[in-house]
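Model: You mentioned two targets. I'll fold them one after the other.
Researcher: Yes, keep them separate.
Model: Target one:
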Amino acid sequence: MSSKSKSENAIVTECDLEEGPDKVWRALTEPEIVARWLVPGDIDCQVMEADPERLLRCSWKIRNDERDRLGQSLDTIVTFELSPTETGGTHLRIVHEGFAAAPLHAANDNRTTMMRAA
């Protein structure tokens, strides 16, 4: 991966791959391939938007009852953006967002607890 950055609500990763957009698209959308390298068995993946060989946006939710200390499960959105490179490969941009909700709920929960204690 050539660059990686994290904002308050998203992790963004970009890279250039030698494979063309058609092959990368297959790796992102064919269930037997995806199961081997991308989405573990405990993740429920729902396609929200798809534009073949260009864009794939999915909702990822944990299937089991795994919860954080506030009783919430991780529910995020992952967007894969594919664009052809001059050399016939693919520029892949991955945006994984939805991480800010848990800290926000924790901050509000702590504030409520502090106000009750006062």
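Model: Target two:
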Amino acid sequence: MGKNKKRKQKASHSSHSDRKGDNGNHHHKDQKVGKKRDANPLLTAQQKFLKSLSPKIRDHFFSNAHVTPEERAEIWEKQADLGENVVNAYSWATPDPRLLPVFQHFGPIVEVGCGANAYWSKWMNAEGGVDVVALDVSLDEGGKISALDGTEMTKKSKKSKTGLIIRQGGPDTLAEDAELQDRTLFLCYPDEEDHQMDDCDEDGVPPLSMAAACLENYNGSTIIHVGELYGDTLSLEQAPFGRSSSNEFQQRLASEYHCILKMKLQSNWLHVRDTLSVWKRSETCCIAFENEDEDNEEDDEINYKYIPPSEVLPMDTAAPCVAHLLLEGKSGKSYKKDAKDVEMNDSESSSLESEQADMKQPKKNDWGSDDRAIAGNAW
């Protein structure tokens, strides 16, 4: 494998994602902020890297007009080096405080594919007191980028003083342990690795991805997914379903569930568009038509799913460059086309108008630049 190809492969796996890595005991012990323990060292490390880049780089990383191929390659390699280290030590994707109320609201949680670090499960348990059962087929080597093949599975269970349970298990465990069915299923980057051809059966059919296998074994009502979803990814090679979960999982998820919440992650790598989304199992019904064919006694049925009005995700969305079209269509008023020039009066605007106006006024993040300055953080 050539040097460039190695770097490309390294970058594609190193900085985008929750199958986690090793314990991080060698190089990534808990960082300290003064005398206080850093509860989210992955977020700290990622934000430090992003802050080191100029707003032009962060906002226009893939723009040929703003960044040269040579500049892009140099930054990519730096991100890849950092990404591989923190993914191995922590997690594929980065939790942030905005997400904690979601896990508290939908807990208790069962995470499948928590990795050797169980980073997200430990974080939500320690920071928010969320009741979590975290499962991985290999508690020692789960999710590590540099993990060796054939690593022996660890047959043990760990329980923290705060009630967090970490134990060996996978999709099948969901069906074997009935108590887990009452928990919200949490999946973070469950399918970051492609199927291998040597895993196919005799007919050349690959096995179910881990995420799809979870759907096969889970009968509960709610799923939380972290990663890229259909249409979110910037990678042409991984379009349209992204790098986080398989197409078979996403197709079945959208068919059997409906999304009731979608939030961008506060901090993403330059080439990643991770979100947290919450999915609720849909009620289904059928329309039964009387069959007029005398030779066929069965009625024709067409199946639909029912989504209560209170659980319908808004359909109206717009990028800042065309957000004024939504406002004009809603109110009948004419607004300036430049999103930054749109000013709304709370007493005169609807909830939609207020939301759109707020979207156009970037809020300052932890390091002083606006949200739009980070590629992957404001879409």
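Researcher: Noted. Anything on target two?
Model: Residues 1-34, 146-156, 339-379 have pLDDT under 50 and may be disordered.
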